[in-house]
Structure formats: structure tokens, C-alpha cells
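Suppose you are handed only two things: the residues of a chain and a line of SMILES describing flavin-adenine dinucleotide. What would the bound structure be? This form records exactly that question and the answer produced for it, so the two can be stored side by side and reused later without any lookup.

QUESTION INPUTS
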Amino acid sequence: MSSTLQGPVDAYADVSAFYDDFERWLAAGPPELVNAVAPETSTSGQMAGMRDLMKALYSEGWSRYGWPVEMGGLGGTIYHRAAMWEALARSGVSKMGAFEHLEVLGPTLLSLGPAEFVSAVFPRFLDGTESWAQGFSEPDAGSDLASIRTRATAMDGGYVVTGRKIWTSWAHYATWCLLLVRTGTAESRHRGVTAMAVNLKSPGVEVRPIAQADGNDELAEVTFDDVFVPADRVIGAVDGGWAVAMDILSHERGTFPWFRHCFLTSQLQEEIEFAAPHADALLADAILDLASSGAASAAGLQSHNEDSPLGPRAAFTKLLLCSAEQSLYDWTIATDGDIAADPADSSAMETRQRYMFSRIVTIYGGSQQMQLDTIAKRILRLP
Ligand SMILES: Cc1cc2nc3c(=O)[nH]c(=O)nc-3n(C[C@H](O)[C@H](O)[C@H](O)COP(=O)(O)OP(=O)(O)OC[C@H]3O[C@@H](n4cnc5c(N)ncnc54)[C@H](O)[C@@H]3O)c2cc1C
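ANSWER OUTPUT
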């Protein structure tokens, strides 16, 4: 679905007017913003703050711009969403939490999901009531995603799903999971994969959080034991889930980096006053890498807006985001960081979490090596 034709947006056809008014609203210090930016190192605390903020943004209308009217939005383009998150980042919001999946999964849900089901659930995603997880990776299927084994067997009125997913971000905060399952034979690889929306509160679903070294508890393992999924929750075609997955990865690698880039830029601005002269060369790297990542991800927004997905070119955008995030935190640590921080010092703990996250950014959404592999094979056509 083109993001340029999403319904009436008369009040804010001009995105810069939208940005200015939204910035004024933020500057007045709404309590949900004040809570969301208050120091908080627990993931559950951060998520609670984000949920309340999403509710306020929805009820005031801000987060509805950029989404189609029939899905709970107020029309407009991806530039409205990009502007809203940029202003939030400048106001001290440091991450999207589970609502990053609005940008990773949302566009695909809208373009390939069953309209009746998606129009019933999407407004609850937008207004912060319910969030979504992305169930792709399995213990033996990460880079080699086509080898997934979680199986959906057809039965009257739907499917029964059995299997195990891992590294499922935000699953224990989510109501829904966009799940990739095997519907073809074990040998069918990417041809026998289907995407479906599974309610994580269904009988037979177990979600176990995974303790992370950085102190976050974003990740989880999810098992499905004979879980019934109604037929109207299939996204895309039966056995056509690979196209759904590729569409999602194109957003995750090609447009989501813009949203992450906004937070990184704000963090650079926040930290720059503490800069130490000996770290100047690292600062220069961080600034250059952020500029490259910003330019590439802005191009990703433009492609999305023109309804011309980046496809394999999104691998470049993801690689540039990885460089920017790592350079920024190499500099931050050289300047200001004590990563063996005192757990009682919430600001130092936050820096430690951010530094450690910058090391794993090269894995989610497909590892750095797999992005290089995509560029080699699908763009450079190397043998
Ligand atoms: C913070 C975070 C959040 C995540 N969130 C989600 C999520 O929400 N949903 C989800 O489904 N998954 C999620 N993942 C999982 C992520 O997609 C996988 O970890 C990733 O695809 C790599 O798979 P793997 O861990 O199985 O590693 P493997 O595929 O086992 O790879 C191990 C190493 O071998 C390298 N390698 C493998 N194959 C090749 C090859 N052919 N050529 C060159 N090198 C190769 C890889 O680059 C990597 O360095 C998340 C991961 C992280 C770190």
C-alpha cells in the first residue's frame, strides 16, 4: 500500500507544520512525556512509560498521522511518522520499546494482512493497548531462515501450530506475534512457509524471557504446543510467507534505521558537552557514520513513500546504521563511560546498556555477514 494515499490529512498536509505544532505540544511537558523520559533502567518500567506515552499520542491524534484512516489513522505519509519520532527523540525519548514494531511490522500488516482482521487490531497497536512481536528465528534457523520447523497443520477453520521460536523481541509484552510457520514439506524451504498472526494469550503458548548481559529483558523464547490459529489470520498467501518476511525485512533494514538514527543523533547531542579532547578522532567517526546512516535511511523513507521498496539495497542502510551505533558508543565510552557501572547510578547504567546494545545491533534483522552476503550476491552478482 502506498503511504502517499492514506486519506484526509488536510490539517497537516505540510509535515513541517505538523512537526512544529507537535514540538510545541511536547515543550508544554505533558506528564506522559515527563514519565517516559525519566531515568528508568528496567525494561518493564520503560515499556510502561512508552505505553502511556503511546496512549497520549493517540488520544491527541499525533501518532495517528501517517497511517490510513481505516486502520485508526488520520492519513498522511511515513514522513509524519518520521517527524513525530524525530521530535520525540529530541525531547529525550531514547527508544521506542515494543512500538518499534509499528515501523518494522506495521507497513506489511497493512499491505499484506487480511483487511478485516488488521483493521480490527491495528488501532489497538497504535494506541498502545496491544503490541506485536516478530516470530521468525528458531534455535536452528537464524541466518538460514528458510529452514524453520515450527509447523502449522491445516484443520477445520484454521491451523494448529507447534514449535519453538527464540530471540523474539518484546514477546512477553506483546499480545500478537507475526509468526513464520512451515506449511509445506520439510524440504520445501522458502516455498513452504506461511505468515500468520497468533494471539500470544492463546492456550498452548508459553513465553519465557531470556536474561540478557546488558540488563535488558527484551528477548524471549516462545513455544507453541497445539495452538489453534483461525484461518482468517493468515498474512499474505498460504505458502507465500517468504514474500511477507522479505517485505518486513526490507522495512526493518531500510526504513526502521531512520527511527533508530533519530535516537542516536539525540544521544550524540546529549553527550557532546562531556566530550574529552583525546576522543576527538572517535567523535569525528561517529559524526560521519551518523551522517551516512541518516542520508541512507532518509533515502529509505523516500523509497517507501514512493511505494518502491529498497529490496536488497536495504542491506546497505542496515550496515550504515550498525557503523553509526558502534562509532557513537566507542566515542561515548572513551569520553564518559564506565561500563563497569555502579548499579545504583542509573545514568551510568543507561550508558552501559546503550553501549552493550550497540554491540548486538550487528545481529538483529539479519547479521552483518548476511547483509554483506546479500550485497555480494544480489547487488554485485558475485559468484
Ligand atoms: C537484539 C536482538 C533482537 C532480535 N529480535 C528478533 C525478533 O524479534 N524476532 C526474531 O525472529 N529474531 C530476532 N533476533 C534474532 C536474529 O534475527 C538472529 O540472531 C540472526 O538472524 C542470526 O541468527 P542466529 O542467532 O541463529 O545465528 P547464526 O545464523 O547461527 O549465525 C551465527 C554466525 O554465523 C554467521 N553466518 C551464518 N551463516 C552464514 C553465511 N551463510 N555466511 C556468512 N556468515 C554466516 C552469522 O553472521 C553469525 O555471525 C534478534 C536478535 C538480537 C540480537
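WHAT STANDS OUT: The chain has 13 helices and eight strands. The two ends are 34 Å apart (CA to CA).
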